[in-house]
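**Sequence, structure tokens**
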Amino acid sequence: MMMEDSAFLHPGQAVAAAGIHEGMQVADFGAGAGFFTRAAARAVGDTGVVWAVDLNRDLLPRIKNLAAGEGLNTVEVIHGDIEAVGGSNLPADTFDFVLITNVLFGLENRGECVAEARRVLKKSGRALVIDWAGSFGGLGPHPDHVISLEKAQNLFEKHGFGILSHIDAGAYHWGFVARKKASEGPL
């Protein structure tokens, strides 16, 4: 069974729940196998673009080829380090949405990742954040690596985001949408 077809985690539903739509500019931080990249590309259509960013160079051509095979010609790939401000190699103040899905648990520099997301987002840009709710007997990450919903939300708030909404991310994950705040003041 493909991950996208299971109740485990459904990228298409998560992308829709977050409000990603036609024409948007989206960055997928730590794109991995590209499940969320492709779901976002379907949502943004021919007038948007999705940049898949990953540190593993070997994954990038695979993402591009899978997307092209599905007729998703608005997917671009870029090698980058999402754990360093400026490391994604994406321009500042450009994106409507940043996807940070199933990545936080594996990062050593979570704060840097959130700061980099803030850097690349337009004013009032948003982030879709999804991660493991637990280890689930080894199905998910090591228990020491799991980040709770509360800690993740606090991390985003500390780095200049406001939490907009929670999304249903399945039985094994939590999810929320955060919006980049102006330098001062409320959302």
About this structure: Residues 1-6 have pLDDT under 50 and may be disordered. Strands lie at 25-29, 49-54, 75-79, 95-101, 121-132, 161-166, 173-180. The domain at 10-180 is CATH 3.40.50.150 (Rossmann fold).
